[in-house]
Amino acid sequence: MRAAAVFLALLLALGAGILAGLWASDSGSASPGGSLSCVVKPSCTGSEVEVLRMSSTSNAHAGTPGGSGYGSVVCCGGVEGLGTSCTSGVYDTVLTLSAPTNAHVAAAGYSEEVCLSVEAGGAVDCTYAPSCSGDYVCLATISGTTNAHVADCAGAFPSGSKVCCEAVADPDRDGDGFWNDKETLYGSDPDDPNSTPEVCDGVDNDLNDGIDEGFPDTNPGGPKDCLDPLVDTDGDTIPNPYDDDDDTWGPLPPPGPSPGPPFTGAGASVDCTVNDGTAKDCIDDAGEYHVGTDSLDACRDDEFDDAWPQDITNDAWVDVGDILMFRPVIMTTPGMVFWNVRYDLAWDDSIDVGDILMFKPVIMTQCTNP
């Protein structure tokens, strides 16, 4: 048992260390809303935006997309709502140009600007460096920061710099804490903060198709199973309305009046203080409502059933891969760009090491459904 505990501690430390290292180095991973990609080519596809035109791919003059006919085009895409506005949304200047065509470029100071933009709630940043790192991608090479020529990213100048930009779409357009992709998958409206993924709590959370739709209803005509006093989903002798955790057999008595005798712990109860290699939910119903998981099921039925709170990847395994999913959201709080309530396992409005520690009783376990 002691060896197992030491192994668990080392594993959690490894996961946290990898996560911290990735975050500190910003070494690049898929961002919510897509990842920016840019390339120089003769023309852009319909899913890309034109940022800059060049007379050639090396030692070239520059032009704006609307003011030049040059045949080498900096095309960018991959981010939801990406644009080239210099006046609306969230934007940053890529370069300034001395004229709409046949122009020299500068980091700042010329009258013509070319920009990258995203919708409100996202983030854009452009800078100049010997090379681009992390989530910054290269758009072009410039011979200097003023009165300069341009080249593609393979180009080189004796004292040149890369034009490096990062663009991130707003992963949560309505600011309700649930990212757009999850709301779309589970049927709530990503543009309405009052519409959130449905949980079984007696409320129409997603504002469509009624109350608690999609959840089990053992006794049709009454409430769904989560509120039905005749149903005991986890078999712990506590009817669901009086059970703090409907999908985990726990040793605690019901907190309020019950139609039956108090729970005495008969049968095999779950110990959520240790990792014994057994898959278990270990987050109560209120916590599952908070993160938007299925309080009546401790293991996924399919890709649409987000049931096990620590199974971030929803593959019926809890392992280091789930911990690494925290990279974009670690050290965020409500209102920050990458805040995602799905990861707030400790339910304290802060995604940090406390949430990682919630993996302790279940790391390296697999769940199955009957």
Any idea what the shape is? elongated
Radius of gyration: 26 Å
- C-alpha end-to-end distance: 29 Å
The biggest beta sheet, please?
A: 4 strands, antiparallel
Binned strand content: 15-25%
Class from helix and strand fractions: alpha+beta
Give a count of the beta strands, DSSP E runs of length 2 or more.
13
| Spatial order of the strands forming the largest sheet | 1-4-2-3
Q: Considering DSSP H and I runs of 4 or more, what fraction of the residues is helical? A: 10-25%
Describe the structure.
This protein has a domain at 37-168. 13% of the residues lie in helices and 17% in strands. It is built from five helices and 13 strands. It has helices at residues 2-25, 180-186, 285-291, 320-324, 353-356; strands spanning 37-41, 49-54, 62-63, 72-77, 90-97, 105-106, 112-118, 123-129, 137-142, 150-151, 161-168, 317-318, 365-366. Strands 1-4-2-3 form a four-stranded antiparallel beta sheet, with no helix packed on it. The protein is elongated, with a radius of gyration of 26 Å. It starts with a helix and ends with a strand. The model is unreliable at 22-30 and 250-268 (pLDDT under 50).
Fold blueprint:
Elements: H1 2-25, E1 37-41, E2 49-54, E3 62-63, E4 72-77, E5 90-97, E6 105-106, E7 112-118, E8 123-129, E9 137-142, E10 150-151, E11 161-168, H2 180-186, H3 285-291, E12 317-318, H4 320-324, H5 353-356, E13 365-366
Antiparallel strand pairs: 1-4, 2-3, 2-4, 5-6, 5-7, 8-11, 9-10, 9-11, 12-13
